[in-house]
Amino acid sequence: MAPSSNKSGSLVFGAALALRLALFEFPTLANMLGNQVEISTPVTSFKRLSEGVFLFRNGVPPYDGGVFHQAPLLLGLFYPIISSPLLVKLLYTLSDLAIGYMLLQITALKDKALKESKIREYGNKLEAPGVTGLTVATLYLFNPYTIVSCIGRSTILFSNMAVVAGIWMGMKGDRGLAMFSIAVAGYLSLYPVMLAIPVMIMLTDSIQDAEAKKRTILRCSAFFLASLSSIFLLSFVLTNSWDFVRSVYGTILAVSDLTPNLGLFWYFFIEMFDQFRSFFLIVFQIHVFIFAVPISIKLRKYPLFICFLLSTVMGTFKGYPSVDMRYSFLIVNLFLYSSFLAPIFWYLWVYVGSGNANFFYAIGLVYGIGEIILMIDTTFALLRRDFEATSPPDAADGSGWDREVLQK
Amino acid sequence: MTAGGVPYGSESSAVKLKQKWHGPLANLVEDLCKVNKMRTTPACVLLITGALLALSSSSSVAASASASASSDQQYVYSSREPIPIAKAPEAFHEELVLKPMNDGSVYSHFQFTTHIGTMMDEDRFDGASSNLFAHYNLFPRSIGQILHSFEVEELHLTFTQGRWQYGDWGYPLAPSAGTGVELWAWLSDDKRQTDANWKALTNTLSGLFCASLNFIDKTITVEPKMSFRNEGPYNVHAASPDNRDNSTAPPRKLRYGSLPHENVCTENLTPWIKLLPCKSKAGIASLLKSHKLFDSRFYSMAIHVRPVCEDELCRVRSLELVQTITTVFDVARHDGSFDWSISGLFERDIEHACPLATTSKVILQLPHMLEPYQYDFNPKPPQGTYFEGTEDNKVEIAVYDLIQSTKESSPFQLAMTWRDAKNRAIRQSRPGIVAHRYFTGYGQERGGLSIEIHNNNWEQIDILYMDTLPWYLKLYLHTFNLQLHGEPFEDKHGEIVKKMLYQPAVDRARPAVLEMAVTMPPKSLIKFSISFDKVFLKYTEHPPDANRGFDVGCAVITANLPRHRGQIGRGGLDHLRVYQDRESSLVKNKRLVESESSGQGDQDEDLAMDQIRVYTETLLVSLPTPDFSMPYNVITLTCTVIALFFGSMFNLMTRNFEVVVPPADKKAKGKEVKK
Fold this sequence. Notes:
- By secondary structure, chain A is mostly helical.
- Chain A contains 18 helices and 1 strand.
- Chain A is globular and about 60 Å long.
- The model of chain A is unreliable at 324-331 (pLDDT under 50).
- Chain B folds into 3 domains: 20-78, no CATH class; 91-430 and 569-587, no CATH class; 433-564 and 588-652, Immunoglobulin-like, CATH 2.60.40.740.
- Chain A: It is found in: Endoplasmic reticulum membrane.
């Protein structure tokens, strides 16, 4: 079993590597994808990153302007390598492969944990085995969204990598690295800060003693804050000013750059009346963050699912979403529909002038609805499964698996 | 006596009254109040108002009608220590330059120069806190008050309509020729009030000139670091290395803003004319008739205020107000004939010179012909024409002194006729530096900007390039590239771009500024290009005619061109230089005398440089527009989607599953029901 899976694993990763490198060989394709609004947003665009690095290199403070809104550590990361396209290519490809590998590991860990809990919950009754890690990795690595995002050199990749690493480490039980990874993810694109909660749940899951649990949580939070502040300090040292805080997080929160994307915010705030703009901005941003706590309480048994749900919430409702969604399986029709029509409608509006902004907005809406339905359905399914698991049908009250269930 | 409405010949009394009369007047009123035991405030107010009214009425009326007022002033001045008043020059000069162009257009340049003197014993003159503006004689009071209240040291405001054709016309005499409105000012920075003062300045000028200058806000205003230095010898002194360390010099700040989409019309001209001492009642200004002026290919009017030196050592300083109007009339439009006359161009004649003017001249620059005797003009100047400039730059000039010529009762007239309408061999003017700027790319998502600069000189020229781009074009400086003669040029050692200053734009807060010091090789064509993204604006940020697009103001090139070279606009720059060298008259009388004996002066002239500014085209950029009829739909739809999620999620989070005990008659069908 093991050698064959190793073989097919290396095959998958080799193929993914080859595919990416091959696609990178077409610079026009990379540039075209990098310019596509569905892929690169104002806070993840590689073009803007290049501009930031260029300004930084030439002594112009990069955050003292309206173009560059990405974290200073990305600046530091790309500063030495941006002049070499090969290194940039390799960095993106390898990071993407690393995410695939980590997903594989996560699935493996989950399977192991699941087996234990299944044994605990159902006795020896076995469910059909879930998808294997390799399948997940394959799904990720050959997901067209992932590929175009990688080829388009969107910097959301690094944020995703940090998130996935955080979850992986969380499942492995490595407190330090897990918290650090989440801190990096939060630092890179703010919203993943929420994931600190489910990862903490993962870390404390196995601890039974309430006191010890509390202590672990405290220690984890302290470590989280410490790593966050040290990253910020490092950024300050790098750019020698705190301007980046306003430029990076201010832009994310205030949605000041209204370049269209697949989200719901841009057109809303373009069309919003001036006097209500800040009100809706606050409401919408709170709306993103507000789910972290209730979801975590309700679904505390399933921290991985919380991660999925929160990531999708972020992906749908953040200011600048793009197609690179971590766990989005296709709600096939809706997503295909939006994926194909979005560039067409964009072209119609912006270049030909025969369509208008509403066309593209409608596609964004469809995409948003698709994700929302996905989230709701999966949550519902999970809760229902949970219910069935905790109160299995009892022969005593005469109900079978087909009993009627109410949500109260 | 004060209101700027002093008519003729009251200069001597005006000089006497140069002192601060505000203080003494207040004292006087206070004294009077005490003496008359008028303790009630209204009475005092009444008295003050009365005194002010008396003072502000024009002196001719005041002198004859209110003897009591003048005796009051006598009292004021006798009660003070006598202060030595330096002989401060106070003068008004008017000039009109007419110049037939190669394409048959006639170029006319009106220039009105007013000086207001300062005290010789003053340590420094900063334009604002000095007691200069205690009294107004020839200087317009409205401008004086603006300078005084907003601590403006130097002010340049230009309204332009149409585009100056550098290729055909050479360089204009007026220093600014960018389409739209251009305003720049040096402000005092004593109390760190610069931005507040600038805002107030733009708003006040907006009211004064009936223009939309108040739209020059922080998203338009820039502070150039290399271009738009202080003008005039006084400022040159101030900027010289000796004086730079002088800590007593007040800190100054430059502010620059332009509105490329501003239309210029009669309502801007009328307040401009009101600033002149003779208005348009007499002198050259009587030619300013708006329906003729605006029916032209190019129209530009400006006011320039700057401190200048009156002597070599800059002991005596004064404030100079230069008002210019520049037009290019298309004479050949109707019948192809190049013939013109003053009365034909302006539909008026000059009856007599402005009585307040120290000098009043009409200058005709004769076209530079390849063959002689092709044209004729009438009348000939009494002292004959003379040549100015050297070598290629030589130009024949006819000067008419209006003060002399209009004494002889008949109005001044001038006409030019051409012998052969078909065959005119006028020498082409070849401007030294010409620049063009244009957009590249298509679509409303991104684009590129290209700037082409030609150096037609045989020598290397240093230029300063300044471009201000609005924030809604997001520039990518890393895409900047340089071409020399159409070939990509790697400027690794800074051979061409010596220095580059870049201020990135901030959304809704400030524009992007690109300033470069460039060395142009001899006979070269340099092309810069840079790409940008277009920003998606909120629907309220679009103008009412959203699909027309947004105007992007001109780029400005400041260049020092060698004066002895002939290609600089056929003598035009000589006048520009004269203007810059702070000579009241465009053509100095002294020059007239010395013109025959060209000695040392020409040696200097060979080395001398003329500073000119070249303005590129303004551009129109169309930004992607949202659907302006959609706000309600978008708000409802988006909120629906968000509510859909929130509601369902809330449902899932707050409710638990429960088994329904099936009623006996209705067996469960294995279906979940949500309540």
